[in-house]
Amino acid sequence: MGTKAKIIGTGIYIPEKALTNADLETMVDTTDEWIQTRTGIKSRHIAADNQACSDLAVEASKNAIKDSGLETSDIDLILVATITPDMFFPATACLVQEKIGADCPAFDISAACSGFPYALTTAESFIKSGMYRNILVVGAEKLSSFIDWDDRSTCVLFGDGAGAAVVTAVDGNSESGILSSYIGSNGKYADLLKIPGGGSAVPPSHDVIDKKLHTLKMEGKEIFKLAVRQMSDSVAKVLDNAGLSLEDIDMLIPHQANLRIIDAVMDRVKLPREKVFINLYKYGNMSSASTVVALHEAVKEGKIKEGSNVVMVAFGAGLTWAATVMKW
Ligand code: UT7
Fold this sequence. Notes:
Blueprint: E1 3-13, E2 17-20, H1 21-25, H2 32-39, E3 43-46, H3 53-68, E4 77-81, H4 92-100, E5 106-109, H5 115-129, E6 134-141, H6 152-155, E7 161-171, E8 177-185, E9 193-194, H7 206-210, E10 217-218, H8 220-242, E11 251-254, H9 259-269, H10 280-283, H11 288-300, E12 309-316, E13 320-327
Parallel strand pairs: 4-5, 4-6, 11-12
Antiparallel strand pairs: 1-7, 2-3, 6-7, 8-13, 9-10, 12-13
The structure holds oxa(dethia)-CoA (UT7).
Residues 30, 34-35, 38-39, 113, 152-153, 156, 193, 220-221, 223-224, 227, 255, 257-258, 261, 285, 315-316 line the site of oxa(dethia)-CoA.
């Protein structure tokens, strides 16, 4: 019956420079103890000045294509999930296409921290429709360019990085592949997490810069509550759509924003701790890149094996949320 979409290769790129909690103690009024107990984060990575979002995406993409065993010329479509594009336009995906030497359509997807599963669902739809066969799906962020480094309530949370996956068409009867996807959004909560200035609503000006409106603003407490509820509900919904139950899950790959959010989701969905993959202590929140980097590391560490049932779930600005269940 028809076609399924399956991830056949993953790759990541994390910039070299680490910014530890101890480093942040010298920059703002914070402590390693506060950051670790409130978030679980110990360190994050910061891209070099001469590295743009597309440069991080390119390295992850090359690694993913190599891992998949395909050639760049096999790629039929490139999707880049990002909220920190090189420029408003052209799309970062077009810059990636040129830099890796691909010859195919390419466009960006803006769904903040839900970006990778949103893009994966888009890729799945193109594959199921029969339009494309091999799709490069990237999550890449250079958030450090849009952080207010004087705001201790946000600057300790985020990091830069990129991950990519090659998704391909497999026979619909094949056991492995994406079993179900679910995406959602609610613009009612758009004000809770945003970069207010620099777009067409509040165009760039000296005032925008003076008031730092070009940097990320977040109502952390509100986002926290909504994230827990929505990620828990999304896991239930995507499992239901796939005809699976919680006992069938081998590994949960959640968005890596805050360890307390992940703990609360695990409590609500009643999954044991050994069934969740966590790497936020190394990288902080890399928005679109977080889930795909976590997926890659879980596979490479042997925590996801052939036949494993994997659920990915994310939540972010928009608000947006997304979940995918796949058999590896
Ligand atoms: O990727 C999806 C989008 N983002 C998220 O999912 C983030 C969701 N939210 C969160 O992760 C948490 O709400 C935060 C980590 C952002 C904040 O944790 P919290 O437990 O909600 O802390 P809070 O905002 O209520 O702040 C508690 C206190 C405040 O001081 P007072 O008012 O109690 O005196 C803050 O000023 O902690 C203070 N504070 C800090 N202290 C030391 C805030 N940031 C810091 C800091 N270091 N970096």
